[in-house]
Amino acid sequence: MKKFIxxxxxxxxxxxxxxxxxxxxxxxxxxPGQSEINVEFIYDNMxxxxxxxxxxxxxxxRSAELExxxxxxxxxxxxxxxxxxxxxxxxxxxxxxxxxxxxEHGIAFKENLSEAKYTLLVETVWVYPGWDAGVMKxxxxxxxxxxxVETANKDNVLAEVTSENAPGDQWGSNFSxxxxxxxxxxKTGKSFARLILKKTKxx
Length: 203
Hints:
Blueprint: H1 2-14, E1 20-26, E2 36-42, E3 47-48, E4 53-54, H2 55-69, H3 73-105, E5 108-110, E6 118-128, E7 131-132, E8 137-138, E9 140-150, E10 153-168, H4 177-199
Parallel strand pairs: 2-5, 2-6, 3-6
Antiparallel strand pairs: 1-10, 3-4, 6-9, 7-8, 9-10
Helix pairs in contact: 2-3, 3-4
């Protein structure tokens, strides 16, 4: 009976809300024939946790919590968190987009392509880092707004897609909040790429 209860608890703790991806406007018919797409990542209005904390408040509270447990840990974590977008989250998203588009269709999604005709704006709306206690865990979740615009006129929106609760998890234990969130960005890239390919007849 105890094993059964433990199994049920494990299933509950590892469960995650299904990802929801919806096209808000536009289509992707402009993509076929392109060789490169500029990508910009935006975190300006990102909220965290179920309390929808601004990032500055989250960093302050999390750092204080870690510092109280062990002096120096809070500062070390702040550096890791600050580096996570560039070192983990963005590369994970781009890896999955390019796996579907560059390898199969010759379209490269990269940052800092100022000469590219189109830009993909990846705006992070909300994230939940999740947690891992070994036996039980809760996957991370990432909510983003994905918008294709003209690079020279970003007010001209060609397509906009919302992605809610992309799950971030992997087999085995993962005790890094930043790495779990990275898997959420990978899932976002994978689902977004599949959606585009499904909706664009020219591919």
